[in-house]
Amino acid sequence: MSKKPELSLRTRAMKYLVRREHSRAELHAKLLLQATPDDNVERVLDELVARGWLSDSRAVEQVVRLRRNRFGMQRIAYELRQKGIGEDLINDALPQMRDTELEAARSIWQRKFGIAPEDTKDKAKQVRFMQSRGFMPDVIFKVLRGTDDSG
Fold it and tell me: Is the Cβ–Cβ distance between 36 and 61 less than 8 Å?
């Protein structure tokens, strides 16, 4: 039986990046688990950034694009923070998300419920669901009232 050759840290990083975009912090954590004392994780990450293969801004775009039809702005921002994305990049993405927040909330509410709550118990259930998806209370109540931006 032949033993598989050890993959270099750079090769491991490339394998992760082929699957999906990663933030620098996220990839750093994954590579540290596999690094030997001789490996220089920061150098590998710097090289990937310099070549344009690792980008926090692309990671933000991907997360927003994939999560937007299921979650609200607060939940997406939380997920970005968990991935080690800097506040400046998150703040840059917020206006784009804010512009589509009401539309996304309506779409999610329509798929899940589709009809206005009949009583306070039903309303509370719908509000809790929408809050768990990361939507702000003002957006949730606009959706439940069926009103536009003013209201």
Answer: no
80, 26 in Cβ contact below 8 A?
no
Q: Which domains does the chain have, with CATH numbers?
A: 1-54 (1.10.10.10)
pLDDT digits (tens, 9 = 90+) for 72-116: 999 999 999 999 999 999 999 999 899 999 999 999 999 999 998
Whether 83 contacts 26, CB under 8 Å: yes
Question: Backbone dihedral region of 14: left (phi > 0), alpha (psi from -120 to 50 degrees) or beta?
Answer: alpha
Cα separations in angstroms, 36 against 5, 32, 33, 65, 131 = 15, 8, 9, 35, 43
What pTM did the predictor assign?
Answer: 0.83
